């Protein structure tokens, strides 16, 4: 009977599929989301676009675009199974520049939201028509 898990020595020599590693490192919630991001070109390995089946090895440099965030990480460990968050965070090391840039962007987005208050009630018929008219102006 064969096991689906491999020993750490075998894993480090052969590497792990990129989509599986991204899922195990908790960059994406599902493997299919990781695969779609790779196919869309949002993931770079050592400065090159990659395929989902590309093997990731220790010390590889990854550039991960996820939503508005961009992570620049170095692979520290390999895993082919998703584990707890502390174990996943030990699989990579994010550069200080990347972390600082993400914090600045997060602060900028928070500053843009200051002063905004969501309406307490749903818009009535007149307000909906005004909102729709404003939306038509933006389309021009």
Automatic annotation (TrEMBL):
- Keywords of this protein's UniProt record, alphabetized? DNA-binding, RNA-binding
Lineage, top-rank taxon, reads Bacteria
Bias regions of kind Basic and acidic residues — which residues?
A: 100-124
One Gene Ontology biological process: cellular response to heat
SMART domains named among the record's database cross-references: S4
Is this entry keyworded Cell membrane?
A: no
User: Which portions of the sequence form the region Disordered?
Assistant: 93-127
Ranges for domain RNA-binding S4 come to 16-82
- GO molecular-function terms, A-Z: DNA binding; ribosomal large subunit binding; single-stranded RNA binding
- Recorded family membership: Belongs to the HSP15 family.
Q: State the protein's name.
A: Heat shock protein 15
Organism for this UniProt entry: Pseudoxanthomonas composti
Highest classification ranks of the organism: Bacteria, Pseudomonadati, Pseudomonadota, Gammaproteobacteria, Lysobacterales
């Amino acid at each position: 009977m064969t096991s689906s898990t491999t020993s750490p020595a075998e894993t480090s020599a052969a590497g792990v599929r990129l989509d599986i590693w991204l899922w195990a490192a908790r960059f994406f919630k599902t493997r299919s989301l990781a695969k779609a991001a790779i196919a869309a070109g949002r993931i770079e390995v050592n400065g090159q676009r990659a395929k989902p089946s590309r093997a990731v090895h220790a010390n590889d440099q990854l550039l991960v675009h996820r939503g508005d965030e961009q992570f620049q990480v170095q692979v520290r460990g390999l895993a082919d199974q998703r584990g707890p968050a502390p174990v996943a965070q030990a699989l990579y090391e994010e550069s200080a520049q990347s972390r600082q840039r993400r914090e600045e962007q997060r602060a900028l987005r928070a500053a843009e939201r200051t002063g905004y208050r969501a309406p307490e009630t749903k818009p009535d018929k007149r307000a909906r028509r005004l909102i729709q008219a404003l939306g038509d102006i933006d389309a021009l």
